[in-house]
Amino acid sequence: MMKIKAVYKVLPAFIFYTDRFVKRRFDAMAFGPLVFIRPSFRDSKSLLVHEVVHVKQFYRYLGLNGLLYLFSKKMRLKLELEAYKEQLKVVDESKRQRKTERAALFISEKYNLDISCEDVLKQLTED
């Protein structure tokens, strides 16, 4: 199943619910304007928000965000922090602190960034 979501009010994000193309350690992935979300996370608004941020980044950087993401740890961190911050805004207030701590741990361990969980947490909670 696929659905289309508009970003920046006019540009398409194509959302697919499938296990294909999603790396084992993740629940979803975005490639340009294409978003792949595992079917078991179909109802996760926060995960969809996170991936749509990556689609916005694709358009904002004219498609160069993928290369920057691959070759620059600094840029990878910047892009993920932006996506996680938006994701955490839609998490229920009672769960936000725990989810923020979990996101910091995940970023520090799963994105090959050479950054501590504490440093990620500090950046996630900055305004």
Question: How does this structure look, described?
Answer:
A hairpin with a 3-residue loop joins β1 and β2. The protein has five helices and four strands; from the N terminus they run ββββααααα. It is globular, with a radius of gyration of 14 Å. Strands 1-2-4-3 form a four-stranded mixed sheet, covered by helices on one side. The protein has one domain. The chain is 52% helix and 17% strand. The chain is an alpha+beta fold and 127 residues long.
Summarize the structure.
By secondary structure, this protein is an alpha+beta fold. 52% of the residues lie in helices and 17% in strands. It contains five helices and four strands, in the order ββββααααα.
Mind sketching the topology for me?
Blueprint: E1 2-7, E2 11-17, E3 28-31, E4 34-37, H1 45-60, H2 65-71, H3 73-89, H4 93-110, H5 117-124
Parallel strand pairs: 2-4
Antiparallel strand pairs: 1-2, 3-4
Helix pairs in contact: 1-3, 2-3, 3-4, 4-5
Mean pLDDT: 96
Radius of gyration: 14 Å
Count of individual helical segments: 5
Strand order of the largest sheet: 1-2-4-3
Enumerate the spans where pLDDT stays under 50 for 5 or more consecutive residues: none
Structural classification: alpha+beta
Q: Can you give the helix content as a percent range? A: 40-55%
Strand content: 15-25%
Number of separate strands: 4
